[in-house]
Amino acid sequence: MSDAASLPAAAAPPAPPTTIPWLGVAAVLLGTFISTLTGRLSTFGLADIRGAVHAGFDAGAWITTAQTAAQMFIAPIAIWIGGVYGPRRVLLDAAAAFAVISFITPFSTNLPMLLAMQFAAGLASGCFIPLTLSFLLRNLPPKYWAYGVAIYALNLELSLNISASLEGYYVDHLSWVWIFWQNVPLAVGMVLCLHFGVRREPANPNRPPADIFGFATGGVGLALIYAGLDQGNRLDWLNSGLIWGLLVAGGLLLAVFIYHETRTAYPGVDLKVALAPPLPRLLLLIGFLRLTILATAYLIPQYLQVVRGYRALQVGETLVWIAAPQLIFCPLAGLMLRRTDPRLVSAIGFIFISVACLMVAHELTPDWNDEQFLPSQLLQAVGQSFALSGIVFFAVLHLKPQDALTFGGAFQTARIMGGEIGSAFVVTMVRVRSQTASNLIGLHVQTGDVQVADRVQAYAAVAGRMNPGSGAPRSAALLGGAVHTAASLQGIIDTFEAVGGLTALALLFLVLAHQPAPVGPASYRPFFGRHQDAQP
Asked: DSSP string of 292-328?
């Protein structure tokens, strides 16, 4: 009798780690929002931040690099400490530290102090994304995983595209210090949600020893490679000894890290999970998606600022039309993920992104304003939501719950590194294609040419009416400005075409290289089966 009575108790599942599940989910999703928002805001507000600490262009370029390089450095460590101490404790400490750092950062009196604060903020925020996916899978009922992943993707892209509006508003109406201070209430809200929404978990008593050598080689290697990519365009890539040093040293350290992790008895990162098919291909697609997303986030502002002369706030009002529709399409993406093959959802996203880029490439003219971008931005919004959530969910179907931490760290690495490679590609291509176009246009601007003379006279007449006596000197400058604008426009058009074509190739890769995902628990995709016991 006692044995029988003990069976239900022994078979009973352990108490869930959340007391208010959706409050806990809100906490970790706030973490993904903060992590992306902070880096992007620093990019848009960099000129104001540089001026506040009296930093020049070259030295100030390291302000944004410092934070994201720290996120790369902490990624392997976050996997280990999350498994040992549990996501709740790590996220609580990281969010509290991030709130304090964000508050004191504007009080930096010089560039070295600001760089140190940025690096510390990156260490704290770098823990957010790797631990988020693990938390979602462990604390949400399986039938809600699709919606959790869709919201997860929404947070990453929403924060990226609204940052220009926020930065422009802060600089125009408040102060640059709010670029950092706006993180304080967000981080405090994250702490409160974690405290009241997530139950404490005991530390893992069987935790493996810390892999200090692996953490050092992996973290430093990733940080050096990121720094080389981030500074490459400014320093002319392999023509710079510093870029050579960063990339070679980072590559060697990363190779040592991989060799060490495959040989040690207690690896800090289980590479078998990250390298098990099809995850490497999916991580490659995630990195590529960041290229397409950052391409739009860079190319549209580049056009509006260089060709049309928009300010940051006006640029932000345009980019928000990529962010806002995602609030509508996010639930639709989650519903489709539950009802159909996630490859189909991703394929729809890739198609929309490619069409959006090609639309702009074939229709963009110097007369476009923000309203002309609206149709392509709506397609881009749907494409981003569907493509990223579909790929992440497709990866989740291949994971075991205990592998979620490792995948979260790998996702963080692919997301940041893919975004940086994409950003480097887009910025370099715009620069090179603009220089080529400027050279080709310049071949047709010859002294004595009738059309050139007519254009110079027209410029002189306009300048003379505005400021008598300045017509002739100003006409040459106006002609040079027109050539620069036309060349910049052509560079942007060529890059949109390239991104659209690469997205079509990525779609082909997605379709041909991936078999259908495992069905998984019946309770989380009712379309695929009848009631059966959900697998852990």
From this structure: HHHHHHHHHHHIIIIIS---HHHHHHHHHHHHTTHHH
| Mean pLDDT to the nearest integer, 488-508 | 89
Alpha helices in 45-61 (DSSP H): 46-52, 57-60
Q: Is residue 24 classed exposed, middle or buried when 0-12, 13-18 and 19+ CB atoms within 10 A define those classes?
A: buried
- DSSP code at position 409: H
Looking at per-residue confidence, does 44 or 120 come out higher? 120
Structure tokens at 388: 């990223």
Sign, CA torsion 341/335/274/254: positive
Neighbours of 448 (CB within 10 A): 6
Question: Per-residue DSSP letters for 241-273?
Answer: HHHHHHHHHHHHHHHHHHHHHHH-SS-SS-HHH
More confidently predicted of 257 and 208: 257
444 vs 359, which has greater pLDDT?
359
Provide the token pair at 45: 């507000």
Per DSSP, the chain holds a count of helices (H) and strands (E) of 22, 0
Phi, psi (deg, nearest 5) at residue 198: -125, 130
pLDDT at position 517:
66
* N-terminal to C-terminal alpha carbon distance within the chain: 30
- For residue 417, give both structure tokens: 């590194």
Report residue 18: phi and psi, to 5°. Answer: -105, 145
Helix (H) or strand (E) holding 370: none
Question: What is the four-CA torsion angle of 12, 14, 19, 20, rounded to 10 degrees?
Answer: -80
Residue 40: closest CA among 183, 240, 138: 183
Tokens of 65: 């690099």
Structure tokens at 365: 């003219």
- CA distance readout (Å), 460 to 447, 465, 481: 15, 9, 14
How many CA within 13 A on the CB side of residue 316? 22
Backbone angles phi, psi at 300, to 5 degrees: -65, -50
CA-to-CA distance for 393 and 341, rounded, in angstroms? 10
For the record, the structure tokens of 434 come out as 């603009």
**How far apart, in whole angstroms, are the C-alpha atoms of residue 373 and residue 483?**
23
- Tokens representing 318? 């345009």
Decide if pLDDT at 303 tops 50. yes
Ranges 110-119, 168-177, 240-249, 308-317: which has the least confidence: 308-317
Q: Which backbone phi and psi does 365 adopt, to 5 degrees?
A: -135, 165
Cα 26–chain centre separation? 19
Task: Say if residues 299 and 429 touch (Cβ distance below 8 Å).
Answer: no
Asked if the peptide bond before residue 16 counts as cis, ω within 30 degrees of 0, the response is no
